[in-house]
């Protein structure tokens, strides 16, 4: 069975952008699209059932309206309205999805920390997760991917390269190195040889991570970026002018699946563009 792209539906502007993004990708990959809206908040209060019934009816109308408004691209579209915890429902749905797409309440890349639900869903999901902010990225260029040589990074590179090729955008692969911690009054005494060697080693590792991409995607422009600093900060700076950012996350172990690495967590908490978390 072909696994669909699952997208979370709400009445938020970012959710509408998430549906649009997911629809375009589903069409490009000839995948079915599944729209899910979750009505939560039940606490057992008197009169709650009537409120929930109205909320479910409104959610069903919204999902149906969203589906009917989709471009006629020959897509198979499925709809589902559930009651429960949105994080739990969408996380469970990811087990049978090729990709999970959600909107974020994050408005821009100005630095405000929001989007806890998005982080929790990305941490628990069993497929790649794309978080879409309420930001117009149509005039931006490039797909940014963080590279650190890990298995998760390899999967992130594969995802980013395929998306960059599909979109006709350059792939901007960035590897970040951070010097050993030193007291502030010693920051100026890093030996030049040490700094040059760190830069060189990082560049070599980046080249190895990207080996073979040009043969796989002959028309793909690939930019190698080696930066000194903190990975999440550098990725977000580059993402602020990119159409898409891609980061790797931890694996699928019993505990690891419910944790985000510090880099992916920081990137999502200061969301600068449409961002994919790949594991």
Automatic annotation (TrEMBL):
Any Pfam family matching the protein: Usp
InterPro entries with a match to the protein in the record: Rossmann-like_a/b/a_fold (IPR014729), Universal_stress_UspA (IPR006015), UspA (IPR006016)
Domain UspA: 1-133, 143-279
Family label: Belongs to the universal stress protein A family.
Name under which the protein is recorded: Universal stress protein
């Amino acid at each position: 069975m072909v696994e669909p792209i699952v997208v979370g539906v709400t009445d938020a502007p970012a959710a509408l952008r998430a549906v649009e993004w997911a629809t375009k990708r589903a069409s490009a990959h000839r995948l079915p699209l599944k729209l899910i809206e979750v009505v939560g908040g039940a606490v057992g209060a008197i009169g709650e059932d009537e409120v929930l019934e109205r909320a479910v009816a409104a959610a069903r109308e919204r999902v149906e309206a969203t589906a009917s408004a989709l471009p006629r691209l020959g897509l198979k579209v499925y709809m589902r309205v559930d009651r429960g915890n949105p994080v739990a429902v969408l996380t469970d749905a990811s087990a049978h999805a090729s990709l999970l797409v959600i909107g974020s309440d994050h408005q821009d890349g100005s630095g405000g920390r929001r989007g806890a639900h998005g982080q929790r869903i990305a941490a628990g999901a069993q497929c790649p997760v794309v978080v879409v902010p309420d930001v117009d990225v149509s005039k931006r260029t490039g797909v940014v991917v963080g590279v650190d040589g890990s298995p998760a990074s390899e999967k992130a590179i594969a995802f980013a390269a395929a998306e960059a090729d599909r979109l006709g955008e350059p792939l901007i692969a960035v590897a970040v190195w951070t010097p050993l911690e030193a007291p502030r009054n010693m920051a100026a005494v890093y030996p030049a040889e040490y700094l040059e060697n760190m830069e060189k080693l990082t560049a070599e590792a980046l080249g190895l991570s990207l080996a073979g991409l040009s043969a796989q995607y002959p028309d793909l422009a690939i930019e190698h970026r080696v930066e000194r600093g903190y990975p999440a900060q550098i990725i977000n700076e580059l993402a602020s002018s990119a159409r898409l950012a891609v980061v790797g996350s931890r694996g699928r172990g019993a505990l690891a699946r419910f944790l985000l690495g510090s880099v992916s967590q920081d990137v999502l908490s200061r969301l600068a563009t449409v961002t994919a978390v790949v594991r």
